[in-house]
Structures
1.
Amino acid sequence: MNPELQIKEVKIATSLQAIQNNISQFTTIRKEKGDDFKMEDFVTFSMGKKKGFEFETDPAFLYEQSCGRLTQYLGNCILQYFIESTQTQSNQAIFLDKEHPSSQEFTPKQLMKILRVPAINIGGKRTLRTAVIEYIDESTEKTIVTGFEYKPFSPMKPLVSELVRDCNEQSLFKINLWNDYHHTSLSTFKTNYGLTVTRSKLIEGEGGYIKINTYEPSSLKPVVSRASPMVEHIQYLCDGDKYIADHLINWLAFNVQFPHQKIKHAVLLGSKNQGTGKSMLIDAMRKILGSKNTNSIGIKDIGNGKQNWLVNRVFIAVEEVKDVSPRQMNKLKSLITEETVNADIKFGKYGEESNVSNFLFTSNERKSLYLDESDRRYFVVFSEAEPQEAGYYSNLNRWLTEEGGINEFYGMLLCHDLLDFNPDARPPMTEAKKALITDCVPDLDLWIREWCEERFTLYNSFKWEDLIEGMKFSPHSRDTSRAKYIKRILEDNGVACIRSVINGIRSNRWQEKDGNNEYIPF
């Protein structure tokens, strides 16, 4: 007989014998246990030194005979000892050992391999490992640590209201919150994971999922204080204008007291000179709100295809903005005012996400953001002040970092009275915003506006040909063919075309409206 054929026959015979043994073993156990057999009779799971699954019979045969129940059993065993997390830099799902969650992270494929889940084919291109991963992903019995289910809260709010009510001039500097800051009465959930997860952070999500709010308040201990050095610095950044400084402090305080709520306008903090200390204010806010809950980006990041910089952030500083185009401004509109946005997360899913981010822009340019007269999304501050001496910033930094000033600033913002602040209202108009709107108007728009004002001092109306003739002798001679654009400029400035009859001759003339919104007669 051919040796190769003999070897094949031996292999086939061995396989048949194995199958017969499996059938015999399976039949014997079913007779003993009844039709409702237990999967533990065939599979054992251990988290000891030899971690993973041990099979008493062929896994492929067991899968077939159990009608797929093997997949559920393996998945449920894994969920007893592992917790799923999306809190990684890549935002992909990983698994952590519940007993030692900070020791190592496993991807689903790594976990299947470590636990010795067989990579057998169960039909088509699917393997048992794939089926187990899918079962875990769809299971409603799992616990997820995720940044996508984001419901931040302010643990200090009840304490702050009590302190403000009882606080007086004499006790202002004596009250601190060292003992009452953390909710020590609530039991922690796996503190060795690196998060102090309390019952208040457990969220019952859709589909029966138990989710954990990963918002972590700052570890700073706020102290009730006037925080005079930082308040004076904010007034300096506002050129000493108390009205503007008060609104800016209100805006900052609302971020701290209600990090889960959105303010429907952003702040543009500008200055003529660099080095005035705008970044010191941003750094202080990021420490108070927590670096994990905030971000500092450039304007180019706004146009990034992935929005990792946005999701789960309560405060975003966009630094050094300059000549932002109308197209970029359109992208900012929904980010500033809408409470949900469609976000594409790297290694994650594209979909609707909660948007609790409040934006603060900084610039050293007079022409930074492109704003028009109807804008309702920006509160603009622009300082003409010269930078302070080096000692000023050294003293302020020492107060913040070494003398507990950051804690005092935190306490001041937490206790700040917000009775006159409406987060949904249009921001106050400032002279800096008026100037920025003017700077954003194109030169052609300004020329036409000035030409019309001069014309209307002499006549009540003009012909289209008069305007075009004037443009021919101006720097905008090449724009005479832009009829639609020119007409829109005229209409935006209250000038419209009216068909009239003068001395029996019909003609189209352009005229302006009076204070009662009526056209001035010829």
2.
Amino acid sequence: MRYVRRAAALAAEDAVAIGHRLVELTGGTVERVTQAKRLATWMHDNLAEATMREVLMLGGPADDDDDVDAELELSLTRDRVERVLAMLEVKRANGGLTPGEAKAHEAATLRVYGAGAAPKKFARLEAQQVDGALRGQYRFAGAYQTGRMSSQGAQIQNLTRDVLGEDGTAEAPLVEAISKGCDYATLVAADPADVPAARKLALIVRPALVARSGKLLVWSDWSAIEARITPWLAASEGAEQALDVFRANDRDATRPDSYVIAAADVFHKDVSTITKPERQIGKVVILSCGFGGSVGALTAMALSYRVHLEPNEARRIVDAWRAANPWAMEFGGAHRDGESFGLWGAAMSAWDSQGQITTAGRIAFVYRDDYLGGSLFMALPSGRLLTYPRPKWRDVDVLDREGNPTGEKRHELSFRRARGRAKLWRGTLAENATQATAADILRTTVTRIETNPALAFMPIRMTTHDEIVVECDEDRADEAKVLLRREMLMLPDWATGLPLQSEESVCRYYTKAKAALR
């Protein structure tokens, strides 16, 4: 607990320091990271390029004949700030920033990390622990539509995945320093020195979760499980080819993985020439477009990886990926003008024909008008049903990025939820089917481990959506690692043909830093 308490105190001290630094950067215009309107105006005035300034503007850029005296409406939402940061980092890598842009870059960085929730998790951990242990951190089937387990409290399923330094080499020294009660200056100066203190703290929340004395944590996470499940559910010839890429890489790790192949398709290059940044694009496009997403989904997810894509480039990437993976769009499907196929076609056909079972790949649908006022059911391969109560077409307001009506209307299908209604489209069906199937695999695996007396020496301590963490005696860690991998790769009877792969890790504390692992 010494580590958690000291980290919580440093996070509070950093919040004050960020305010002081913003005063210095902005000449007193901005005093706190939460003063979004002031900071947005200051950043707008210090960005030299119009394209960057436009990112902060509500609506579109001003026309030449607009009222010059009208107050400019700006927004500083996280996605906008991250887009500006990505653009500034591209410019810095290709010639450098002006003094004003350098200040704007630092201010934007302070906004992103200073206003983030991750450093505040230390205070939550300290407040919610009882005798050094966290309890009640999960809500069973908390994800209403898919039935996935959700987090509450300290949100331990939603910890930052990035690491501090190359392969996390800077993590252990800083964790040790904080455990010994280091001061704020030591935190700021710790490697990497150019990373803000708030960001450093966000990256070392995981090590707060430690094994008991004489014990070790052993964990295993499935590799790209959602990217594997989606084509498996599609069960088409093209989807099977996508699965063959995973199978080949599972047999021989030197073979190009799915992200490299996706990048090669997008950039029309040989797989052997794909660079690390290009592979990152391949990863982003698979994760964003696999559920039918288009340019908006791609650019939004790219920002989470600090990749800025211009609209034309994003459109080219989406089109290239779809051309190389027609199975994905076919699985999403359509239902129009006598043409009906894929998930959407099966769902709409079931809705049209009460009581009739329709299928798309390994997914089935049926509509019953005698349940909850009429409900569309999706049957998963496990046999579990997802429910979409009271589906209805209606005209809804088109909203801008701030959630305000634009004055336009859109005709869309929605279904009833516990509170309000939610949009239903082919991407929703694909995403729900994939995530719910992954949840079924996790539940099956957890149940099998917890009910096997031979595995009682390695009780499960926590899970994420694709990961299981157990605790065991130090001298049985290698044994637990082997057995956990066996359980992770054991398919349920209903999942025949799904290629799974996992990676196991051992450490005294929970971490993504390769340098800290045993």
3.
Amino acid sequence: MPLEGHQDRTFILPGIWRKPGLAAGLFQEALGIQVMLDGNDVGAVYLAVKEAVDRARSGGGPALVECLTYRQGGHKRDDPATYRPRDEVELWLSRDPIRRFRRALDAAGLDAAADAAEEAVVAEIDDAVEFAEASPPASGILPPLGGAT
């Protein structure tokens, strides 16, 4: 069953994703899609992708896993996304995959393990930021912005 608010990145104009039929698995008929699921359900995505990878590695051929989800922000940093109703955004924010997975871990009694994993990830990010900030600026990779030399 398609999720309301699905946006296929092939169609990026703000209003087109609301058109009937686009949310109903755009590639199902064309590519013989095997899996279409709630992309905000971390566990379901993991299991579906694991199954597809295992099948491919055992010679079963490729698979397309279509994960239906919702872009929480606007199209770019300075896009306030005022073209979307606030209640729609709030509904989808309540389905945030990270928070949703954390609630599932807590409910399964894995909150201490989740806390430890989260602390390890935060430490790794902090280390990466510290390394980046201490590193010299990159040079010779891209031309200067704005035509400056």
4.
Amino acid sequence: MLMIRKIEASLHREWSVQWTYILALLGAAIYLVQAFIDAHTTISRLDEGDYLYKGILFATGQYHPFELYGVWMDKAPLAFLIPGYIELIFGPGLRTGRYLAIFFGFLTLLGVWVAALRISHNKWLAVAAVWVLVLSPIVIFTYSEGISQATIACLLAWTLALALGEKRSIWELTLSGFLAGVTIMTRQNMIPVLPLLVAYIFWQHGWKPAIFSLLAGGGVLLFFHILYWPYIMQLWLIWLPKSLPSFFGDLQIPGVGLTLNDLPGESRLLSFFGAFRSDFLVLTGSLIALLLWPKTRAWKTQTDFRTAIFLEALFLILTFMHLWASLILNYCVFCFDSYIAFFNVSGILLLVVVINNLDKNVHPFRQVLLALCVVVIAAGIGYSAFEKIGNWSLGIAFPFLHKGKIVFLSMWTILSNKFLLQQNAALKIASITVGALVGVALLVVVFLIFKLLRRKDLNYAYVLAMTILMLGFVLSPFLAAFKPVCSTDVIAANEQVGAYLARTIPAGSQVYWNGGSSVAPLLYVPHIRIYPVQMEGRTTFRIGGDPQQLLKYGYYNAQLDQQWLNEADIVIVDAGDYMNMKNKLSPDIYNELSSAPIPTSCHAGSQLRIFQRK
């Protein structure tokens, strides 16, 4: 009997292990299916065309990173060189760029699995870590575009997978440092990764591996700075004190830039709480980790403690940096949620390491603070979703006593009559109210569950935290915000439009581009010359300034714009912007050629119109 029980226990363990692999593979399959769907249905945006077109220009040697009178370089060089050289092998276009992003996304899943397994030694937690990404539609959507988020997520996942945990070899830690350097030279906003990583390696693995890691990562930075000196320092101007004299070249840009993101405070709140809808688990999880942070002696191992400190610091510092850039500095107000996609793997791994270490008996003050955070976050999520739930929320009726009778009045009746609110304001207030009520209801339900459990070793905050994490895990796909997708194949449409442009535009033509935010259609037209500054749209437009000084660093003004229009052989304008240019496209000067056979996307006005100088 004892032998039979041992065999049964062994079989149970084997099946348990097999199920983890099955579920992980199932998650990867679901991820890939959704990623391919998103890749083919997502409208191309400015950044995507920028990365892919600059990449092929650099890979073919037509331009070089940080070249004077070349392209605008606001990103580190590998953000363009990596997709560029892949395009050189497989051909330029959205298909190459997006399939590369999907490949990096898959490697990110694998890296998260390996890292989670190394720090938890628990395959079920590793499966859960993978499924956090699988159940995050906005993350998959972001990792399916030809932009740098998937590249950075992959590099960071493997940087952490090689360094976290116990008994890492010298070569693993050295490679981890090297990848951290590559990460920074792909996106300079990831600069905290290397110093924090080296500090963690020193703390966890000792001084020798830390030095090797620092030399490997620092060597990558040094190599690229020597290669592109001095104008690579454009990347760091915003980081340097304004009083610091520039000893690496005159990088002052004349003229005044357009204010493209001067949005009101309510828009910034929408962006902030919209990020909780897109990345609920990592943002809320990092907050829970702080509020239920155990005492130093209560951690299961010193390795868990050190890893949690490193990951919490990394996630919070990167979150604050990107929040400051998007919501305070106006870099891109509604990009905050997509910025988190750069480093959300650090938040996922933080959850993996703290989940079994959370304090189960926190101080009452921290319990109250957690409860308040739940209500505020729920109200904020409601506010960020006001366009979806606002009308429904306004229809909710509340009972009132009127002349001895109970009457029901809708929230819209109350807000419009008593407070004289317009519909837009009423939609937002109603959505905030509903969100807050959901938060309060959750507190009450969890309190009842807590009382039913009758566990003296647990307090209310712990039960609330576990409930939030479980609900967030399951409901993530439903919290996600709107995605700009089409029912048609965007990749095929751009390929068809690009093929038409290649047949229609004479070889060697100088092309003036105003064909939409993304230059993706031009990826399929290799025999033309463009004004590379136009890839950025209005981002690099300046009011005033010396034209040559502006052009030197990839900027332009109205004078240059008019000059390019006057000398271009071909003008491409999308239907949506044609009326703004109609007066400049006189029939006496231009012949209009047949328009592209189909739009580049389902977006209104994305049909391209082509004008040739007589």
